[in-house]
Amino acid sequence: MSDRVIVHVGAPKTGTSFVQSVLFENREVLAEQGLTYPAERFDAHFLAALDLMQLPWGGIEREAVGAWDRLAEEVRAAPGLAVVSHEILARATRAQVARALASFGDAEVHVVYSARDLVRQLPAEWQENVKHRRTVEYADFLDKVRDPERPHPLASWFWGVQEVPDVLARWGDTLPPEQVHLITVPRPDAPRDLLWQRFAHVLGIDPGEHQPDPTRVNASLGVPESALVRRLNTAVLERVAPVHYREFVRELLAHRTLAGRAGSPRLTLPPEVHAWATDVSEAWIAELGARGYDVVGDLADLRPAPPAEEFCDPDHPDEAQVADAALAAMAALVEEAARLREEERALRDEVTDLQGQLHEAYLRPTYRVRRKLVGMSESNPVLGAAYGVYRRARGSSSRDA
Amino acid sequence: MSDHDSLLRAWAGHLRAGGTTPWRAFSAADTTATPAPDSVAVTAGAAQLEVVRRLAQRRDSHAVAPEVFATLADRVLATSGPGRGLPQLPVVRQSPVEIASGRGAVRVGPPPADPARVPAEELVRVLTGVLPALLAEAPTPSSDPARPRDPRRWARLRRPTARFRLAGPPQAVAVVRAALVAAGAREGGRWAPVLVLGLPLEEMLAQAWSLRVQRGSATRWFRFWSRWAGDRLPVSVDLPGLATHHAAAGSRVHVLLAASCGQLVPTATAALGLPARPAPADLPGLDAAAVDLLRRTNRVAGVTTPADERLGLATTAAAHLRRPGSTVRLRVPEQFRGAAAGRSARVATDLTAGAARGTYAVSGDLDVLGVVDEDLPQTPDPAVVLDRALDLTLALVTGTEEER
User: Fold this and answer.
1) ipTM of this model?
2) CB–CB of A258/A328 below 8 Å?
3) Within chain A, which residue ranges are assigned CATH 3.40.50?
4) What's this model's pTM, rounded to 2 decimal places?
């Protein structure tokens, strides 16, 4: 039975993917060191979170039925320390949190939440929306998020996972504050591995021994690339199934082709939104400082830096830059189409070859005799009984052949 | 515990005992209500509490025993609304929780809400979180309505009987079948003529949508249109396809078109040479709100219920939700008006061509295919969906079907 459980509940866009990557890729070694990360597949904790929160997610939730209870059972059975990690857990309601904490039995539960300043999170969250088929313009997104009543689903989701004091209140109100760990994401000019060192400190593992897989890090899109993908969404939304969108738009175009293109302006906040986000952040810092949580890093990391560059509007981008990005996207799609055509050609050749082999087998005299006997066995009782004996003698595997 | 929390706990106790006083009135009055037990209501938001109040308002008409109601209330209070929607809204108090900032106050968390003003959509969401478990516990009622029996079946032995086969949208088929059987005709037989029934395209698609949802689909009315607005139609709505299929199998095929299911009946009886019969008015079916509730429940069941049990849940829910004479009446969504007109025109053209080739006969006005009923809503009314959800929930805990 586990003595201690760490539940890492987000936030999205704070390095959660690379932490999960380290825990998953090294789970056998870590288990020998007393840390259990119970997952047979990389998205096991995602499925468990969908189940806990009864959250439909484009059909994948059908694989999630009962996943939380199974995860909790593995956690309870684990010796020493067990870790559960998924960023959408940040959205859990108090009732869902109560169920989750109760499911860990008598283990000492620690909640971990990693937070990044709002000025970086707002553009990142819009980009995530764009990469998930949404067509909302940037200004519209920011207006919806800033509406104090938060009636729109975009605002509801954003604040549900990003509002640091509220997330920690939902997850941490029933725990002693020292069991609530707030990891702050360092400023952009900090050493690259500082965030990983903070995570490793909370997890109690050697940061040098286990290094994150860099391919799990989601690079962000520039302004023209974001504008391009949003426009593409409006064109393909009703015509491309989610499964194909995921493969060709999100993975091939957004992640592998357009993310991190050199020379593209970075997405930031308009000046008035920047000022508003700074104000909110200051209030959060004061509130969090008074709660007595274990802060790993510095609350000052949540204070947005002043605007360093001129705001570049993705709703009215430089069309030449968008055209450049579109050219890169078309080149990638043509290459992929050619690769798939080659693959299709190879498969066609294989099918033709197999059809030929099958045809040759049918032409053999012994096949024709056997086939005639099987046909006769349907009307001739003696042959039928003999055929039944033959099939039983061949065994079940042969019967299916 | 704060005064607000104490008052909230007292209100939760009032509601689970069957009380129906709204929060505003309750919190304004001195009360000595028994607080809810410690195990409940701590995590409930405005939507959960309001759902319990709405259920309590209908408790008597469903004859729910007090202890059964308290158990149901606890279940609702412990269930968060599944899926995406508003966050769990705290119940409004005199002054919301705010934290100071340099330029004023910044609120933390979702905006507090008066439970009585929580949108119906959110109340339905809470109930769809409870329904899959209640449906799983409920006995499965007799699923689909039995096929109508011919009252004069013994007379068939003495005289020849008209035979028929039917194809087309499901509700139209059910209505015409009942009328023809009542008129003495008999369904089935290899040489029986096939009557392909056609209605306005929007009504045929509504019936197809209803059937898909009853079989476990979670597709919205809008999404259903977006799927079929291209160059395909569901099998039961593809009139030229159905007619051609049956004609190719050697059957005599007669396509009958009318503006409503009721108007199909006289053309069908006339096509078989039977005496005119009134259309049966009381066949049980699902209205738009019931189908919408069912598809929402199916969506949640996708994440709560094993695959092999989901159809059973939908069947149980549909059996409880059917009402005499109900059918889905929804207008084609505005975005698909053009596509619907184009599809209707193409179906009409194909039917005309098939009739001209002599492949099948066509009776009725082809223009009905493109008729759009401007008086119909484009989406089910959330308030009516909520009514259905509340009644279904209470019917399931009492173990009886809703009043019909």
Assistant:
1) 0.81
2) yes
3) 2-118+154-218+281-304
4) 0.84
